[in-house]
Specification:
globular; Dihydrodipicolinate Reductase, domain 2; Rossmann fold; alpha/beta; single chain; 6-stranded mixed sheet
């Protein structure tokens, strides 16, 4: 049995999802010969630390009941720098302006030779090259499948599963909030404002939905795809972006009458990175509804390969993180 010591830095929805899947999949992981021992958990205010392994069920209960993970006052950065462990699971909130605390956490982890698995797209959208260089210098593994499609495997599909293929284009729906709003506008012949309010009520959209509905979230994911799959050195400033706020029920109805739906499509290839509402034939693989995400990867040998899945959600995103952790240590 291989024991891997883990810190979970950031304990919002995704961090809690990681804790849950590590508990639920303990026997499965042991069958793979892996024992992920979480020695530290940190939220924005407190930490729980135990070199023999934190009781994840107790931490989850405390977070729900008291709003904190423990009684220690160490920050995530201090844990990374002072507690000896193998892998940092970095799930702090995304900041696309500076990279936020997540950027500092990742750089510190690499400086100390720790592996990093993350769902935090901000640092990768801002400082991809710097992070790759730091990981290489630290001899660290760096995995970030969860940053682009949540539970939908896009990066590993392109880099690993389709190895040997030349990838010429990736396009798809990378934001479930926008897809939900557009789907419901078409179904109900309702306004953007009405369906945004419904999405917020159901928890699909944030109180301030700008990041999603203006296409910024999709743009960040495309930057990661551009850098990872196409070897570009892009930032979100290199993306041409249009959101969904000006789409009307009349436009959706007109499209429907002609056999189309309107979707917020992100597209990246070696010459352009673009986010914009586009007409998609109703029977096309990209015409998925609700809050689903979809990505179509165009290859020279295999043709188009399309995957669909949930692009967000606590446990769904945690599933991608767990997959990355297993891929690092299984061999």
């Amino acid at each position: 049995m291989k024991t891997i010591s883990v810190s979970i830095i950031g304990f919002g929805a995704v961090g809690q999802g990681v804790a849950k899947v590590l508990v639920d999949k303990k026997e499965y992981l042991e069958n793979l010969g892996l024992d992920f021992k979480v020695v530290a958990v940190a939220d924005s205010r407190t930490a729980a630390i135990d070199e023999n392994g934190v009781d994840l069920n107790a931490v989850l209960s405390r977070k729900q009941d008291e709003g904190v993970v423990g009684s220690e006052k160490l920050t995530g950065l201090e844990i990374i720098e002072t507690i000896d462990h193998d892998v940092v699971v970095e799930t702090t909130p995304t900041n696309i302006v500076t990279g936020g605390v997540g950027l500092q956490n990742m750089l510190a982890a690499f400086k100390h030779g720790r592996d990093v698995v993350t769902s935090n797209k901000g640092p990768l959208a801002m400082k991809y090259g710097e992070l790759m260089e730091a990981a290489s210098e630290g001899g660290s593994n760096f995995k970030y499948e969860a940053t682009v499609g949540g539970a939908m495997p896009v990066l590993n599909l392109a880099k690993d599963v389709l190895a040997g293929n030349s990838i010429t284009n990736v396009e798809g729906i990378f934001n479930g909030t926008c897809n939900y709003i557009l789907t419901r506008m078409m179904e109900e012949h309702a306004s953007y404002e009405q369906m945004l309010a419904e999405a917020q009520e159901l928890g699909y959209a944030e109180t301030d939905p700008t990041y999603d509905v203006e296409g910024i979230d999709t743009a960040c994911k495309l930057v990661i795809l551009a850098n990872c799959v196409f070897g570009m050195n892009a930032t979100h400033e290199d993306v041409t972006v249009s959101g969904i706020t000006r789409i009307t029920p009349e436009a959706l109805l007109l499209a429907q009458n002609e056999g189309y739906v309107i979707k917020l499509i992100g597209e990246v290839n070696d010459s352009r990175i673009n986010v914009a509402p586009k007409l998609v034939p109703i029977d096309h693989p990209l015409a998925v509804g609700g809050s689903l995400n979809v990505a179509s990867v165009q290859t020279d040998l295999s043709g188009p390969i399309t995957v669909t899945g949930r692009g967000a959600g606590s446990v769904e995103t945690a599933s991608a993180i767990l997959s990355d952790m297993i891929s690092i240590y299984r061999d």
